[in-house]
Amino acid sequence: MYQLRRILQLRQQGYSKRAIAATLALARSTVDQYLATIESHFDSLDQALNWQDDQLHRLLAQPLTPKADRIGDLYERFPSFDAQLSKPGVTRFHLWSLYKQHNPDGLQYTQFCWRYQQWLQTQRTVMHIEHKAGDKLFVDFAGKRLTVIDATTNQPLTYEFFVAILGCSQLTYAVAMNSQRKEDFLAGLGNSLIFMGGVPAAIVPDNLKAAVQTANRYEPDLNETIQDFAAHYGTCIYPTRSRKPRDKALVEGAVNILYQRVYTALQDKPFHSLQELNQQIMHLVEAHNQQLFQGKTYSRRQRFETLEAAQLRPLPADSYELKEYRLAKVQVNSHVLLQPDKHYYSVPYRFVGQQLKLVYTQHTVEMYHQHERIAFHARCRLAYGYSTQPGHLPPQQQWVSQWSADFFRQQALQAGPWLARAIEQVLKRLEEPLHAYPQQVYRSCAGILSLVKKVEPDRLEKACERALYYGSVSYKILRGILDSELDRLPLPQTPTTTIPAHENIRGATAYQ
């Protein structure tokens, strides 16, 4: 989905299909088929970009079948052909015959020789690249680290030196950071974009682990976090080839210049904090940006403001927040475990037993199933705790999870005033010195409320009135009143303290 969105974004910006394929390291046929599918279903690219990932996933569920390539693996064979031609008896025709055995529809001998000759020439040349304004931002870490003396222990602490440079204007950004780990690298990238005041079309790192999961000459595998970073800023991550420093010669040269203009100036100044070191680096780098190019009448800063600032895309409203990813299985209690925090989060109960993708930041945790977000929680780091949303639980569990004194009072008020008084009488047991177990009291209230669906409202109201008259309210008493139909009888008169006159009663004088 990330690559598809990048194809649509680049197409929207006016890139040709060939340029898109080259930028994203994709086959031209793959780009053609993706765009053909999208254009056949949507009136505009904006409409397609507004769709959710899961909707686009279902639309493109059928695998793409790229067209056959007549060249095959010819260019991959050229380095070995070059070595074999030095052996006695090996000719170009012999090598072409071996190539045709594996690629029957491949190039003929004339084209084979011509392409081989062209390839030989490329091995002995250096390409001159004209950098377009707003096109690329080259980033790298310097080989030499910087040192800070810890103020408390008086021990030296080493820090990495991160450098970013725009291709056209060569405006440079540099900062010292703790490590080359993913979180530090992305923080440096984000701060460099803020420093530039915009976003270039592509960011060019080398194959460091913070960005590239598996290096490849043609299609390197980027880790999911760096892809999400690029999608947030609407740019592309375009790693260099392994062991090809000329691919990022601009930033390599910038590092060498900063060795002279920054490292040398820092040598005789002791620093006791990273913040203090970075303040001095910022001052020196800005002086470097203001200095005129050798033999030119303009500086990097002037060239940036004149040519490149307007070509950068605007920054998003919010800075990127680092995301981490985990896979977790939904347990039978409708919760998943975020292992780093050992905390459980609820998801809708219909996903019990399913494998989910957890995306979490410093403040939030999101759960995805087949590209669809099914749950969202504020992150909690309480070990072995539970974050539960009642709506995620099955209906019977939702009812129990809501039990409280206020809940039963509200439910009873909706049924009738005598029922509300009866529930209040039961809840008074919670206030007794030797009060009952709360869940038992709540269960009694739940039993009384269950009668609402079983008998007529008037009968239940009269049953509650009778129970309150006798001063004893419980589910069994109300059930007994209803079963014996005592609620249909009028309540007795207020009892008196005198014995009524009757012929069978002798009176007090009979005992004197």
TrEMBL record:
Domain Integrase catalytic: 129-311
Residue ranges of the region described as Disordered: 493-512
Annotated transmembrane regions: none
Family label: Belongs to the transposase IS21/IS408/IS1162 family.
UniProt cross-references to PANTHER family, sorted A to Z: TRANSPOSASE RV3428C-RELATED (PTHR35004)
UniProt name for this protein: IS21-like element ISPsy14 family transposase
Source lineage: Bacteria, Pseudomonadati, Bacteroidota, Cytophagia, Cytophagales
Gene transcribed to yield this protein: istA_2
